[in-house]
Design a protein that fits this description.
By secondary structure, this protein is of the alpha+beta class. The chain folds into three domains: 5-167, Beta-Lactamase (2-Layer Sandwich), CATH 3.30.450.20; 230-314, Helix Hairpins, CATH 1.10.287; 320-479, Heat Shock Protein 90. The chain contains twelve helices and twelve strands. A five-stranded antiparallel sheet has the order 2-1-5-4-3, with helices on both faces. The longest helix has 54 residues, at 5-58. The protein is rod-shaped, with a radius of gyration of 52 Å. It starts with a helix and ends with a helix.
């Protein structure tokens, strides 16, 4: 069974949080424990100091430390503070205790001589101890000396049971554990919800990709609530890719349908006429006419195949490698000479509007000659007989413009945006154009796009004009020099 990447990230994030929380919590626990111990020690010393002042104030002679009043006083203080207090004489014998029983179990017992001696020498004592068996368990004990006119007369001991401290500390640990558990549960729930939220669009994209593989390009991912983050950007890019795939698939299907249609028509005619001749359904005297039709349709198939090969070549080649300078008006005139017979056949008058001086442009001269050839061929094909065909070349705003204009049928406005599509034919060409395959203007568009140039068409009142732009050789040379200078600067 596969584990999703977000589930793995969820586990990693949760574990990292738990580890960090445990490390931080452990440090806080030990820090807090040390703080509580210091606070308790300070409180014990404060209590010992108060008892020391009281004992030294009421000490008036032998037996004063073991008086009933002294015992009542230290018992009251012990009840308020929760500590255990006792006084011992200079030999370490307990003479008074804060026990509330009438007979204290501590009175008459002896503190170790080493403890009393340390209190006398160092002026204080603190330890976690049972005072050599005086207590049944460990106690936090502090002690201070009692003096009378600088003479050591005994010690005051204040202690707090270690078990009580540990009970308080245990309660704190339980509270910490409950808080940690609650925070951990909240983190797990938050991380799980966040992982599910992040995984949802990725799962949708995975499902959409599978549907793409099955040929369904209509599926999209979204909407996503955070469009500005990385997931939102990925979804936008994915949907953009899906739109592109859908358009490409639509174009592919349209291309196949158009190719099938273009191939089916001549092939049906060829097969029908050939079968008619072979079966004898066509009289011998008419065989030549139908053989000419077969020949015409075969040539049309050849032109279609050549055009499709040209399209493939246009997609594969890089025109920038074959760019060179040439005189645009000269190329246009040379191309126009190829149509002399067709122009005379349709009784067209040709008007050439060319600049007096050479107009040099930068580009692939062979491909751009094809552009001019296709536009002139298209204009002659659809021009009305006896009309004027105009070819103009001029320079404007740093670009060279070429316009091929004919007078014929107006192209409907709805057809203009589609005129450069593959296999697209306007209604007028379907009835008049038996020679074309619908790829000429498409190749014009592709060649000029490869040169980073534009082509546009206008058609009003029977006048149709195709105009395209080319880069001037001067601008191309300047751009090339700029690129060379930039490269030299980078290498320097």
């Amino acid at each position: 069974m596969k584990t999703s990447v977000f589930f793995k990230n969820f586990l990693v994030t949760t574990c990292m949080f738990v580890v960090c929380f445990l490390v931080f919590g452990t440090a806080m626990l030990f820090t807090g424990r040390a703080f509580l111990v210091r606070e308790k020690q300070s409180a014990l010393y404060a209590t010992a100091g108060e008892i020391k002042q009281l004992a030294e104030a009421v000490h008036t002679g032998e037996g004063a430390l073991m008086s009933w009043d002294m015992r009542i006083n230290i018992s009251t203080i012990a009840q308020v503070t929760g500590d255990h207090i006792f006084l011992c004489d200079e030999t370490g014998t307990v003479v008074s205790s804060s026990d509330r029983t009438q007979v204290s179990p501590f009175e008459g017992r002896t503190v170790g001589a080493g403890v009393v001696d340390k209190v006398r020498r160092e002026g204080s004592y603190e330890a976690l101890t049972d005072l050599d068996g005086l207590y049944t368990g460990p106690h936090y004990v502090v002690a201070e000396p009692l003096e009378d006119d600088g003479e050591f007369i005994g010690c005051v001991f204040v202690s707090y049971a270690g078990s009580g401290f540990f009970r308080a500390w245990g309660g704190f640990l339980v509270l910490y554990g409950l808080i940690a558990l609650g925070v951990l549960v909240l983190v797990i729930l938050f991380e799980y919800a966040n992982a599910r939220r992040l995984a949802r669009p990725l799962n949708e994209m995975a499902e959409a990709a599978h549907r793409f593989a099955r040929g369904d390009y209509a599926v999209r991912v979204g909407p996503y609530e955070d469009d500005d983050d990385e997931i939102g950007t990925l979804i936008d890019a994915f949907n953009t890719m899906a739109d592109s795939l859908e358009r490409n698939e639509s174009r592919r299907r349209e291309f196949i349908a158009n190719v099938s249609h273009e191939l089916r028509t001549p092939m049906t005619a060829i097969a029908g006429f050939a079968d008619g001749i072979l079966d004898g359904a066509i009289p011998p005297e008419e065989e030549k006419k139908y053989l000419q039709t077969i020949s015409s349709e075969t040539k049309r198939l050849g032109r279609l195949v050549r055009s499709m090969l040209d399209m493939a070549r246009l997609r594969d080649q890089d025109p920038a490698r074959r760019k060179r300078q040439f005189d645009l008006p000269e190329m246009v005139v040379q191309t126009m000479l190829n149509f002399e017979d067709r122009v005379e056949k349709k009784d067209l008058s040709v008007a050439l509007d060319m600049p007096e001086e050479p107009l040099r442009v930068l580009g692939d001269v062979d491909e751009l000659t094809r552009v001019v050839y296709n536009l002139i061929d298209n204009a002659i094909k659809f021009a009305n007989e006896g009309t004027e065909l105009t070819v103009s070349v001029w320079k404007e705003n740093g670009l060279a413009y070429t316009c091929v204009q004919d007078v014929g049928q107006t192209i409907p406005r709805s057809e203009l945006p589609l005129i450069f599509d593959r296999f697209h034919k306007a209604d007028r060409s379907r009835s008049l154009d038996r020679e074309g395959v619908g790829l000429g203007l498409y190749m014009v568009k592709q060649i000029l796009s490869a040169h980073d140039q534009d082509v546009f068409v206008t058609s009003e009142n029977g006048v149709t004009a195709f105009t395209f732009t080319l880069a001037l050789a001067e601008n191309g040379r300047k751009d090339k020099e700029k690129d060379q200078n930039r490269e030299e600067h980078l290498y320097d």
